[in-house]
Amino acid sequence: MKYMDLALRFVGTSLLWFSFGFVGLIISVLVFPLLYLFVRGPGARQIAARKIIAWGFGAFMWSGCRMGVFTVRVTGMEHRNPEGGQLILANHPTLIDVVLLLSILPQVDCVIKEAVIRNPFMRASVTTANYVSNREPEDLLSSGVERLETGASLLLFPEGTRTARGQPPQFKLGAAEVALRARAQILPVVIDCTPQFLAKGDPWYSIPPSRPHFAVKVLPAVAVEQLVPGGLDERHSRYELNAALQSLFESELS
Amino acid sequence: MYSRIKDILVGQFEVDESAVSLDANLYDELQIDSIDAVDLLVQLKEITGKKIPPEVFKEVRTIRDVLSALTNL
Q1: Looking at residues A64-93, what average pLDDT do you find?
Q2: Which residues on chain B are in Cβ contact (under 8 Å) with A174?
């Protein structure tokens, strides 16, 4: 029975990754050229591209659940401001966190790796969607702030990469710095995936002993001022904010 | 150039002047953080008009490294 379950989840996982690539390819070669033909103007194209991405990621998550590869439960979505202007901060336990989050938070800005922009299958969609590139650290900070100031919501993973195995998340200072510069409201999103699945160093085909469950908890939004005392200099403010955020996530995850 | 960098470190990042040397480790000894480092990178670009690529700057540990990165451009 146990082997049957593992085998089924292996088949499901393989099918899921195959369709991820296949649908991604179809979207790149078929859907995006049509979008360029029929949708005019970069603003409208950005909205359309993000709708397509959210739809595709939603289909991925739905199929994963239907095939029994994983289960997902999202709580606290009422804390999110659909109008935007929130800095959404999430921990990063698995490879598919961004897939999960963009499927439930369409139209948010996010940061993507330079490697993704250069990937021929993904370039069209991510550039049309006008996401922020991580190539230049200085631009990353300033564009993040700029997006928030123009009223968009921005999704960041403060760890900058997936969580190290068996460790609590280690946040880098960049996200705290963006929050401080933009004075943006922070929406913490805690992702807990048990058992560990698609973690840093895991190959896509490694199947956990039981079906992984994603518990996604959107916490109430907090203002920067609630987390750092006033009157600190810039450097101490970002340390304090970073430490406060990290302990918030640690206590939620323990 | 060395003194310009030293001025930025001492003036803006509150680094102790006596601790600054060509081979002091910016992060461990002078305790500037990653955000300060990015800030320094931006200011160096404004001063010299040359831009150290991020992948090179990542490897920089000392002021000597900064200077050699600048001359290698």
Answers
A1: 97
A2: 34-35
What integer pLDDT is reported at residue B58 of this predicted model? 86
CATH 1.10.1200.10 fits B2-71, yes or no: yes
Residue from the list A135, A174, A239 with its beta carbon closest to the beta carbon of B54: A135
Contact residues, B window 25-54, toward A, CB-based 8 Å cutoff: 33-36, 38, 41-42, 54
Domain range annotation of chain A: 2-253
Residue B35 exposed, middle or buried by CB count within 10 Å (0-12, 13-18, 19+)? buried
pLDDT at A1 over 80: no
What's domain A2-253's architecture? 3-Layer(aba) Sandwich (3.40)
Residue in chain B nearest A175 by alpha carbon: B35
Q: How far apart are CA A229 and CA B3, in angstroms?
A: 35
Which ipTM did the prediction report? 0.81
